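ENTRY TYPE: paired fold submission
RECORD: A
CONTENT: sequence, then C-alpha cells
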Amino acid sequence: MIEVERRTRETEVKAALQLVGGEVDVETGIPFLNHLVETLAKYAGIGLKLAAKQLKRVDDHHVAEDTALTLGEALRRALSERGAVKRFGYAIVPMDDSLALAAVDAGGRPYAVFEATFTRSEIGGLALENVKHFIESLAYSAGFTIHVKLLHGFNNHHKAEAVFKALGLALRQALQAEEEAMSLKGEVKWR
C-alpha cells in the first residue's frame, strides 16, 4: 500500500493505492470527478482510497489537478517498489454513442496527447476542460506517456467516461508485473 499526501494553500489530497485489486473509494467534493476517478481505478484494477478537500474555494481546477498529481505520484512510487512491468497498454472502449482509444507507456517518460471535444462546459461540478488537464497532470506526475483520442460520440457524459474506461484498461495492461524490464537499456526509471 502506497500512501501519498499533497497539500497546497488551495487543496489537501490524500491517497492510498495498491497496484493489484482492492477497494475503490473516491471523494473529491466534485461528483463527476469522483465518478471518473473511480472508473479509472476500477478498470485499471487498482485499489484506491482518495480524499480531496478544497481549502480555498476557487473552482474545480485545483481539485482536479491535485487529485491527478497525487494519483500519479502514488502510481510512480508503487512502480518504483514493484520493479518490472509490461510497460505498454492500450484499449479501445465503446460506451453507447462514444468510442475512445487510450495508449500508455509506463516507462518513466512523461508526455500526454489528448484529442477530444465536448459540447457542454461542465458535468456534475467538473468543467470538462479539466478532463484534459487531469490526464496531462496524471501523465507528468506518474512519468507515463499517455495518448487519448475520442474517436466519436455525442453524449458528453459517455465521451468522458469512455475516455477514463479506456485509460483504465490501458493502465491495467501496462502495470502488470513482468520478469524483466521492457527496455533495451535493461531498466526503467520512474524518477
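RECORD: B
CONTENT: sequence, then C-alpha cells
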Amino acid sequence: MAETNLAEVVPSPQLDIFSEGNLQLLDETVREVFSVQFGMDVLLCVRANATNDTAARRNEQTALIGFAGALTGMCELRLSIAASVAVTQAMLPDTVIVEGSDWICDAVGELCNLLAGGWKNRLPQLGAGCSLTPPTVIAGEQYEVHRPASLQSNRRTYSFGGQHLLVLTLIYDPEQVLQRK
C-alpha cells in the first residue's frame, strides 16, 4: 500500500469534482456496474437537480459511504424498497428475496461500495489518494439524512429494469479537497 507524505498534500479547492468529465465517468461507472453485476441496462434520467425531495424519503433505503484523504465527502445511494429487492435478487439469483430480508441491506451497501469505489478509481486525483469507509445502510418509511450546509452535492438519477429511480448523490466539502503538488 502506497504511503502519502502529508507534506506533499495541500488543500486545493480548484479540483472540480462535479466537472462534466467527472460526471461522465460516474455515469460510465453506473452503467458498467449494472451491466456486469446485474446484466441490466441503466439510463441516466435528465431532469433538474431537485432540492425538495421530501416525498422521496418514504419507504426506501439509503446507503452512505464516506471518502477520506484526497476528497472528504460521501456517496449517498437511495433506492425504493422495490428497487432494493430487485438489486438484491440480481446479486443473489438463486435466493428468493422478499421485502425485509437481511440480504437487502448487504446488497444495497455493496452496490454503493461498487459505485463509489468504481467512480473514485476512475479519477487520477482520487484513485490511490482517497479511501472509502464501509457502507452504512438506513431503511425506513420516513427518515432524513442531515448534512452541513457547506457541503456541495450533485444528484444523478438513473432508472433500471422498470424500477423506482436510483438516486446517486456525491457530496463533498470544497474546502477539504486535496491535491498533490
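NOTES ON RECORD B: The domain at 10-47+56-180 is CATH 3.40.1550.10 (Chemotaxis protein chec). The CA atoms of residues 19 and 181 lie 21 Å apart.
STATUS: closed
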